[in-house]
Amino acid sequence: MHIKNAQTDHPIQTTISERWSPYAFQEKVIPKDDLLAIMEAARWAASAYNEQPWHYIVASRDQAEAFEKVLSCLVPPNQAWAKNTSAILLTVISTHFSHNGSPNGTAS
Questions:
Q1: pTM of this prediction exceeds 0.85
Q2: Separation CA 29–CA 31 (nearest Å)
Q3: Which of 26, 53, 56, 57 could form a disulfide with 94 if both were Cys (CB 3.0 to 4.6 A apart)?
C-alpha cells in the first residue's frame, strides 16, 4: 500500500500528513445491507436530550432518478467527483430543540 505524505511547511503529526481524501470512486452499487448498517449506526449516535436533530437524504447508485436529484443539490465542483460514488448522503439538521425552541449548539 502506498502511503501519501503531504509536504507540510512545518512538522505535524503523521496521522494528519498521511490523511487521504479520495476523489476517485468505483461506479458500483453499495450493498443495501452495508448502507443500512451505516444509517443504523448514525441513528444510535449520541445527542443532547436524545433529540437526534439530524435527518438524512440518501440515494444509492441503483436508484438512478433519486441519485441524480440528490447529486444536483451539490455545487458543480463536488458533482464532478460525487457522480462516481456508490451513494450520496446529505445531512440536514435542526438547529433548535423541539421541546423548547432553544438553540441546539450540539446539533452539528
A1: no
A2: 6
A3: 53
